[in-house]
Design brief:
Blueprint lengths: L2 H12 L15 H4 L1 H15 L4 H15 L2 H13 L4 H6 L12 H14 L1 H4 L3 H11 L1 H23 L12
């Protein structure tokens, strides 16, 4: 087995599943262990939501969570979107929005493209065309907030994956 193959296999097996040696129930609770960090992230998330349609924020969060492989956040945000009235039909299409673009408005498509570029920033940065289209369609302030929303969900995804959160166990309800 080559080193690249081993690295690929290791990355694939460690993305969302806690190891048997260190199961999720023994991982830390970020809200309890790093309260200031957790509260700061909640405040950041709240700030970016001001002035953005909740449905747009949910679509961005869903797409980034799909790309990051975060089942916990994906479950949470698809559930939130459905409770807020988002159709199951559109929720099913988020992952393939380019092939089903007629399900989404021009603003949503610009935000989804930006969400993908920012989430996968190590691959190619944020292409000028994606950025320019977002500013053209969303305006500067909303583009800045979408970028913030993407950064926020990427952070939440990493918190959830690193601490072994399990899909379907939304802790906001406690």
């Amino acid at each position: 087995m080559t080193t690249n193959t081993l690295q690929t296999q290791t990355a694939a097996t460690t993305t969302t599943t806690p190891s048997p040696e260190f199961p999720a129930q023994t991982r830390l609770d970020l809200a309890r262990t790093a309260t200031k960090v957790y509260r700061a992230q909640i405040a950041f998330d709240a700030a970016i939501r001001e002035g953005l349609e909740p449905s747009l924020v949910e679509l961005v969060q869903i797409r980034a969570s799909q790309l990051n492989g975060c089942a916990y956040c994906l479950h949470m945000h698809t559930s939130d979107a459905a409770k807020a009235g988002e159709s199951q039909e559109r929720l099913h299409m988020v992952g393939l929005w380019r092939e089903a673009e007629h399900f989404f408005t021009e603003e949503e498509r610009a935000a989804l493209a930006l969400a993908e570029a920012v989430t996968l920033i190590a691959d190619a940065g944020v292409p000028d065309a994606v950025y320019a289209h977002a500013v053209e369609v969303l305006g500067e302030e909303r583009t800045a907030k979408v970028i913030g929303a993407v950064c926020s969900i990427n952070t939440w995804n990493r918190f959830a994956i690193a601490t072994g959160k399990v899909a379907g166990t939304d802790e906001r309800k406690r």
